[in-house]
Amino acid sequence: MCFTASGGPAQLNVVADLTIANTVSDLIQGDVREHLPLERIPLQGDVLGLGTTTSVDNGELSFLLENASTSAIWRCVAHDGSIVKLSSGDGSGHFPYVCFTRDATSLRRPVAIESLGPSENTALQTLVAEAIAQGQRSGTLEAAPIYGVRMLTNWHELVITVASKLCMGQQRRNMTVATSEAGASRDGQSIYDMLQHYRLSSQPPESTNDAIRYLGSKMHWDCCGFFDTEPELGRVTVPQPGAHLHLHGCSTDLSFGGHLHHEHASTRLKQLERLWLYPLQSLRALGSDMAIEKISYDDEILRFRVVNAGEMDVSDVGVVVVINDRFSSRRYIRIPWLNAGESEEFSLSLPLPSGRQLITVIADPEEIVIEAENRKNNNRIDLQIQNP
């Protein structure tokens, strides 16, 4: 099976067990300007995934099996914990972070729950780690860098979180160039401390001053996520030692959904009812690549093309025109949106004095688009002219 890119670049037509558009590390650095549209995620078969929606309609993404032949993506809403099924073309399907598998039906490895021992009040990550270890010892589960996880769970009490803003970690990005009091105070916080929290339990909390909003007694959850053997890489989990399991889900009656805060002190498992593991051997990371092409100057008009040569759509990206390295007198253009594989032509009135002139055009001069170093060489183009 190949991923189809619906008008995007050919690089997406690559078979991989898991595709990652940006990473969790990218997301928590703040202000992600790259997006993968819903239309480019194939949902035929058993497709596992999770992600985060845009700042316009903040929330988490949960990938659930709809039936034997298709999967569906549900958006978990930040302000009340409810869920909405996403459909292509409904305007809410552009994701700054999302990871998803191909049809993983052939990789599904059911786990004999009874072999794990009692699951009540046991940490969910411990149960998944034991299931992986047992499978490898018995030879029924291949070693893999990342395992997909599907499970049905029943809870005594469950705390979930839902992303309420995407620039929650912007201070972390600033710390690479400067420090501030705000940055120091927030840097030690868990990323989940900054999100909207909700509590589910069979009875409302006794204290009316509970800081976590109570949603109700929907204790049966359908969950999907990933177990990363190297969480420090920040691919599909928070980049912290020991943070192997990242899990999203929805209550089975489709009332609520979000990130399962399985490590929260109040979360208590009642029963792990079903567990499927998927050994994901091949990983595909999608990247961005902004470029400037076809520059020319004639009759006081500068012409050039801005190209999105990467694999994700980009938003709110700047382009500057600089004459003779005088950045203080630059001309600035902002592009609201540019789809992957597409380009935009610009013509700019640019009267110049007589003599030799250097015209420089730079895409994304602030370097807000996340690009690999070897893809940044084409962001800038110089044109030497001799003006009459």
Write a brief structural summary.
By secondary structure, the chain is mainly beta. It has helices at 24-29, 124-138, 170-174, 181-187; strands at 18-21, 34-37, 49-52, 59-65, 71-77, 83-85, 94-95, 97-101, 109-110, 146-162, 196-201, 213-216, 220-228, 245-251, 257-260, 268-280, 283-286, 290-298, 301-308, 313-323, 331-338, 343-349, 355-363, 380-387. A hairpin with a 6-residue loop joins strand 3 and strand 4 (59-65).
Describe the structure.
The protein is mainly beta. The chain folds into two domains: 10-285, no CATH class; 287-387, Immunoglobulins (Immunoglobulin-like), CATH 2.60.40.10. It is 9% helix and 42% strand. It contains four helices and 24 strands. It has helices spanning 24-29, 124-138, 170-174, 181-187, and strands at residues 18-21, 34-37, 49-52, 59-65, 71-77, 83-85, 94-95, 97-101, 109-110, 146-162, 196-201, 213-216, 220-228, 245-251, 257-260, 268-280, 283-286, 290-298, 301-308, 313-323, 331-338, 343-349, 355-363, 380-387. Strands 9, 10, 11, 12, 13, 14, 15 and 16 form an eight-stranded mixed β-sheet that branches. A hairpin with a 5-residue loop joins strand 4 and strand 5. It is elongated, with a radius of gyration of 24 Å. The N and C termini lie far apart (58 Å). Residues 1-12, 166-175 and 182-189 have low confidence and may be disordered.
